[in-house]
Amino acid sequence: LLGQILDQWFESEPLKATLATDAVIGAMASPHTPGSGYVLLHHVMGELEGRRGAWGYVAGGMGALSQAIACAATARGAHIFAEKAVCHVLLGRDGRAQGVALQDGTEVRSKLVLSNASPQITFLELIPQEQLPKDFVQRIRQVDTRSPVTKINVAVDRLPSFLAAPNARDGQPLPHHQCSIHLNCENTHLLHQAFTEATHGHPSNRPMIELCIPSALDPGLAPQGCHVVSLFTQYTPSMLADGQSWDEQARNAYADRVFDCIEDYAPGFKASVIGRDILTPPDLERIFGLPGGNIFHGGMSLDQLYFARPAPSYSGYRSPIPGLYLCGSGAHPGGGVMGAAGRNAAQVALKDFRHL
């Protein structure tokens, strides 16, 4: 249990609760849920520019990272087709992957196919079910994809000023504006209570909020004096109680609750809001193809990790379809902007390619 680990090392409840957020981030779990300690480990393992456990910000926004990868690929001869939805994977008579068919009817032939989509989309939508082992299909269907995350992107006309650390007179960003700011995390009981409400189909009354202000580090993201604020919030169930849907009223009611909480820490925040974009779990699934809205393509619980990710006997990036590989967050070692799954999958695919 994460709580036991934190109790061994720390005394301060606010510090323990703040660290606990990285153990439940993106997970429908409480700090008291068995296995939550791994999710914390997953978020602090590795290093950035020699600093262990450090995280970095991508100048220009996350899309700039995608563009950098795309430029590196095209410089080496890759062809990238954006906004071209894949309809299904092409299979030969021997059952091998032979390319993909696009929704516009175009067929792209290839010796290998690597899918960065979720295991659910890859194996339940793009492959005929009769081509896959029944136990494998059942395993993919049973993957826990519950997500507690609602992401809210906000445009504001001034920098938030927190009661705990008021802004400078010139309104310039201070060191804390350039970090991840955790709200409603005074103690782990608050997190557990927020989780419990979601398990009953209700958005948390005091949501866990991770607030980042990317424009404090990268001024080009917003006009002078203005800022963009990124809110990573939970817990919000995909399915609301009593059969209610995440309609416009429900989405705005939850966002208003989040903004009320921020207002308690930073008076004047609500008045500074110019616009907001609310992405509930169903929105994250519809727009980004995240199953259940899960940012990791499936829960990072111990029964869905290591040799069991995405299914037992298929953790090595190969799939039941020869020539088809899984290289996204649903593969080992799981989610996060680190490229480990893709790098490992590429090495396996290259090894197989030499024998074709």
From TrEMBL:
Coiled coil: none
Any one GO molecular-function label of the UniProt entry: oxidoreductase activity
Gene assigned in the entry: Pyroxd2
Domain Amine oxidase: 35-163
Protein known as: Pyridine nucleotide-disulfide oxidoreductase domain-containing protein 2
Cited function: Probable oxidoreductase that may play a role as regulator of mitochondrial function.
Keywords: FAD, Flavoprotein
Cellular component GO terms held in the UniProt record: mitochondrial matrix
Record's keyword annotation contains Flavoprotein: yes
Subunit structure comment from the entry: Interacts with COX5B; this interaction may contribute to localize PYROXD2 to the inner face of the inner mitochondrial membrane.
Annotated localization: Mitochondrion matrix
Coarse class of the protein's main subcellular location: mitochondrion
Domain of life: Eukaryota
Family, as annotated: Belongs to the carotenoid/retinoid oxidoreductase family.
Lineage: Eukaryota, Metazoa, Chordata, Craniata, Vertebrata
PANTHER family associated with the record: PHYTOENE DEHYDROGENASE, PYRIDINE NUCLEOTIDE-DISULFIDE OXIDOREDUCTASE DOMAIN-CONTAINING PROTEIN 2
Pfam families found in the cross-reference section: Amino_oxidase
Keyword Secreted: no
